Amino acid sequence: MKSLVWLLLAVSVLNLQCGYRLSGRGRNLPPEAGTIAIPDFKNETSRQQAEQFITFAVREEFIRRSRLRLADSPGAADLVLEGSITAFTVTPISYSEAGAANLYEVRLALDVRLIDMKTNEPFYQGTGLSFRETYETDSADFFSQETGSLVKIAARFASSIVASILENF
Hints:
Layout: H1 2-16, E1 35-37, E2 42-43, H2 50-65, E3 69-70, E4 79-95, E5 101-116, E6 121-136, H3 142-167
Parallel strand pairs: 1-3, 1-4, 2-4
Antiparallel strand pairs: 4-5, 5-6
């Protein structure tokens, strides 16, 4: 009986030390940070408006998942998230019997940096982050489908990058 008590106690102690915690709470952010500014991402690609989709998705995800308030300008923020889209490609990956592309892959590459404005030091930095999304089309209306795919990939990127920052992966 005594060994069973010790075994239960040992298991309890090990469970306390396992490192599990609720994700997405932003506990790894500087504790004094209350605001974040997210200026428009820079677009270094030829795809117009890609930065608008990405910036909007990242702002929405930070508002949804963190305790931070969105600041209007970097000068009024505790943290600033800067980003740039370094690559945007669309590649057909499947063709119909008629020879028209019917499945495309969209790839984005991005660089992001979260700066603690109190210390002027990077808190998080990710370079060459790559994201992709595939979508089907059954018509020649490729560009209307591309925009929908960009919305999806922007949301996926935002979810991933915000989780990485909040949990300091």
